[in-house]
Amino acid sequence: MIWCELSHLRKEAVPASASSLTFHHLDDPVPDDGAAPEDRTPVRLVATDIDGTILPYRGAVSPRTRSALAAVVERGAHLVYATGRPPRWMPPIVEATGQAGLAICANGAIVVETATGAVVDLVPIVDDLVGHAAAALRRAVPDVRLAVETTTSFWVEDGYLALRGGGRPEGLTPAQAPGDPRLAGHIEDVPERDGTFKVLAITGSLTMDEFLAAARDTLEPDLAVTASSPGNAIVELAAPGVSKGAALATVAARLGIEASQVAAFGDMPNDVEMLGWAGHGFAMDGGHPTAIAAATRTAPPSADDGVARVLEGMVASGRLQPATERADVGR
């Protein structure tokens, strides 16, 4: 598929080869015909990205998607959210989908129980690396502005919100609490950096892909660098080794589930590791080319209930099965 920039923040793709999936009528489930007859491994865990996957950009979770996610849980399989969002952005998603449970947040840096807000796993960024990243990015991209997400607060540099606001694509974000975000001249001046699990950086002078490449050249392997926002040139930094894929592997192992029994859905660079690790990785049609390259199959677009249609096909074929073990994911 070829990634295209579009107006109205809806992503589309142009078929680049005969391997592109031909979709059925948008009212039809996607037939569960992606595996060879001898490989009918059951799916016992469904992991899904949120924005651009089950939630169209600047859209809403559809009734069809809500019903499909409920079917996963009703059949005894695990449903895990896997998102770049921080935990504080999860309540509107749980309300819209009707499903609580585990959420891999901040691209794998923190895992929470959405029903209670309890933190299951946290991989903070070593404090010295925050200052290192800020200084290195300012040298590489002079107009960069940064923000830090901690377990207790969200801080932004002067100018960050001005760059962030106009192209913001996410829907279903919570109302802004009084005093949130907090302002700092530079993130190095933030007094509460303990528990920092994510640094965001934004520029107005590069595209998202250009900025992602520059940030990776500048910061890796000291930090994990990814991106998830098609409407802004934002990169997201985490401790080295952090990814949705790594966090999902840990969650699945605790639940006694193998990679071959996991179906994962996503659409952006921050989904690449997860789509590659899962036995059934579905990139959304119109997604970023790196996500499509990492996946084993393509799902219809988010705006056409792509995740729901694939899950309906798995239900119809009997592929979606109850989890056989339920372990304490917090141990």
TrEMBL record:
It comes from the Bacteria. The keyword Calcium does not apply. Signal peptide: none annotated. GO terms for cellular component: cytosol. Keywords: Hydrolase. One of its GO terms (molecular function) is magnesium ion binding. It holds the Pfam family Hydrolase_3. The keyword Hydrolase applies. This is HAD hydrolase family protein. It comes from Georgenia subflava.
